[in-house]
Specification:
Chain A is α+β, with helices and mostly antiparallel strands. Chain A is built from 8 helices and 4 strands, in the order H-H-H-H-E-H-H-E-E-E-H-H. In chain B, about 40% of the residues lie in helices and about 15% in strands. Chain B is built from 16 helices and 10 strands. In chain B, helix 12 (about 305-320) packs antiparallel against helix 13 (about 330-340), helix 13 (about 330-340) runs antiparallel to helix 14 and helix 14 (about 355-370) packs across helix 15 (about 370-380). The chains are: A alpha+beta, B alpha/beta. At the A-B interface, helix 2, helix 4, helix 5, helix 6 and helix 8 of A face helix 4, strand 3, strand 7, strand 10 and helix 11 of B.
């Protein structure tokens, strides 16, 4: 879809300013693009390449390494069901199977109406609350088929709008610091920049 | 930190004070990087610390930077942990507003900046040199050590200390109470308090902070104030003492204390404090496959034995599970394992740059050596032995 909009461009410059080298801002900027469009659009990668003085191929080269970045539209809600060992031991595959039946799709795909994507993911660090899932990276613990169905109807009816933002949005609070005294201008930093 | 003798809480258990001492004198800029990329299967403690007590972590970072004479720290949080990112962002904003971080902290001559950043889904980035690559905007592929020891050639090729979240969260206590106070807690060989996540087949799974080195696995599993016993009154068949990368332990290890040298000597590790309990109904072939699939998916692809080997191992295990196993498959599993980790011993040797490849060998060595009959049964009959539950039973029945 699109290049970063003005508000996100401003955020992008703030993020870039917090690193001694521009390329370090690449992953956070890709997240900004995904937050804007729900996935990382090609135009956005070209835009990010311009901002960081990189070739678009370098941007894609990094982006494609990381599981969270999507390069095509996915569901409004991405439901990531953990099937790793702690979750497998207490029924994660039954839960995944139930989710596939309920939504009529296989893990790795999206419903026709573009509402839901299901993924079979690796450990999400909620092992003591297994089986666990994340919907747009918000946790649901000790999930049962019943609580899964409830969550799906709540999402469909828009009852979780405040709790679960659209796919692509991670933290809703950002670091605000802009003046980083040590980044640029310091004597030591100048030595690094010279190299 | 040296007096406290605190072992790093990230997985390797290297003494943190000694690590800090590796920074060469007078080379600037130097950086502190905080590893908040908690992803080892079974591990759940850094996320709790970041979500529920971000201020303690930030205090630890500031103190560490003071000790290391570093002017900038990078706090790298796992991409999937939206709430942790949010809480840390808020806490950092508050800390900056109150002059606890930033220029001339509390009116002193000491200044430090903390940059919050985050990943995008890659287990390998928990390895310190891969984390540095990621922080430089690259694919998270580990660097060869030597020459790339972070303390000498780390972030932007400058001296860098990479510490785990839990390690740094301990710093405020160590500095305010003194290293000897910290060392007085726990065992002399494993000091301080430590967090362990116990998951799997126990009645009350949970994250417990216990004196390090003295509590036994049995106490953790059975005591009412901890897990309250194995579910349904069953028995332990096996357990993972320190994350998916660790060799498995069995009932004869239950009375062992959670003490680093003791567990190391017994042929495994406490790793990242991730304990997974499997009761006597567990399908060991399926458990082994699931952990191996994790490493196959997460291999970064840099080293051939790991990239090709973990994928082979996963495919062979899957075909055994699917009922298409061949009698020679067990030997094949061991042969491929051998090519990733020669000798299949503990501590593992490796033909790879980082320990991810050998980690995939741990569940295979553990399961095949102890539960060989379960593999043989699958190969002969296409199903698990009697009394064991396949985790795919429900899905398989509905497809039949």
């Amino acid at each position: 879809m699109s290049r970063l909009n003005d508000a996100r461009l401003e955020t992008a410059h703030e993020i870039i300013g917090r690193f001694p080298r521009k390329k370090s801002a690449l992953i956070p900027l890709l997240h900004l693009a995904q937050e804007q469009d729900g996935y990382v659009a090609q135009d956005a990668m070209v835009h990010i390449a311009e901002l960081l003085d990189l070739a678009p191929a370098e941007v894609y080269g990094t982006a494609s390494f990381y599981e969270m970045f999507k390069f095509h539209p996915v569901g409004k809600y991405c439901i990531n069901i953990c099937t790793n060992i702690s979750c497998q031991l207490v029924g994660a595959w039954n839960l995944l199977h139930h989710a596939e039946e309920r939504l009529g799709i296989k893990a790795g795909s999206t419903t026709d109406d573009g509402m839901f994507t299901i993924e079979d993911v690796e450990c999400i660090a909620a092992c003591t609350e297994a089986p666990a899932l994340q919907v747009n990276y918000r946790y649901r613990y000790k999930v049962t088929p019943e609580s899964f169905d409830q969550m799906v109807s709540d999402l469909e009816a828009g009852r979780l709008v405040g709790e679960v933002p659209l796919h692509g949005t991670l933290a809703t609070v950002r670091q605000e610091t802009t003046a980083t005294w040590s980044n640029r201008g310091s004597e030591a930093q100048a030595k690094v920049d010279e190299r | 930190m040296k007096a406290a003798e605190i072992q790093g809480r990230g997985g390797a258990g290297f003494p943190a004070g000694t690590k800090w001492g590796f920074l060469p004198a007078d080379v600037h800029p130097r950086y502190l990087v905080i590893n908040g990329d908690e992803s080892e299967p079974g591990t759940y403690k850094d996320r709790l610390l970041m979500e529920r007590d971000p201020h303690q972590l930030i205090e630890g970072i500031v103190i560490a930077c003071y000790a290391l004479n570093a002017a900038q720290a990078f706090l790298y949080v796992r991409g999937e942990m939206a709430l942790a990112q949010e809480r840390l962002a808020q806490a950092l904003n508050d800390a900056y507003a109150n002059n606890m971080v930033g220029k001339n902290i509390c009116g002193s001559t000491f200044s430090v900046d903390i940059t919050l950043t985050w990943g995008a889904g890659a287990y390998i980035v928990g390895e310190e040199t891969a984390l540095i690559e990621s922080l430089e905007g690259e694919r998270g592929m580990p660097r060869l050590k030597p020459p790339f020891f972070p303390a000498v050639k780390g972030l932007y090729m400058q001296p860098t200390i990479v510490n785990n979240v839990e390690t740094l969260a301990n710093v405020p206590y160590i500095v305010s109470s003194g290293g000897s106070e910290f060392k007085a807690i726990g065992a002399p060989t494993s000091t301080g308090m430590r967090m362990f996540a116990v998951s799997g087949h126990v009645k009350k799974p949970g994250v417990f902070e216990v004196p390090n080195g003295v509590t036994t696995f049995r106490m953790l599993f059975e005591a009412p104030e901890y897990c309250g016993g194995v579910r349904d009154g069953r028995n332990v068949k096996a357990f993972i003492p320190g994350g998916a990368s660790a060799m498995w332990f069995f009932p004869e290890h239950l009375d062992m204390a959670l003490d680093k040298p003791t567990v190391d000597k017994a042929g495994s590790m406490l790793g990242s404090g991730a304990i997974v309990v499997m009761d006597d109904t567990t399908d060991m072939v399926a458990a082994c496959w699931r952990i191996v699939r994790f490493f196959a998916r997460e291999s970064c692809g840099k080293c051939t034995p790991c990239r090709e080997g973990t994928t082979w191992l996963e495919r062979v295990l899957k075909r055994i599970l699917d009922g298409h196993g061949r009698p020679e498959d067990i030997d094949l599993l061991m042969e491929v394992s051998e090519s990733i980790s020669p000798g299949i011993a503990w501590p593992p040797r490796q033909t790879t740059i980082c320990p991810l490849g050998p980690s995939a060998v741990s569940p295979i060595a553990s399961a095949v050596r102890r539960f060989r009959h379960e593999f043989d049964h699958y190969i002969a009959h296409g199903r698990p032995i009697d009394g064991v539950e396949s985790p795919f039973a429900v899905a398989a029945a509905s497809h039949a």
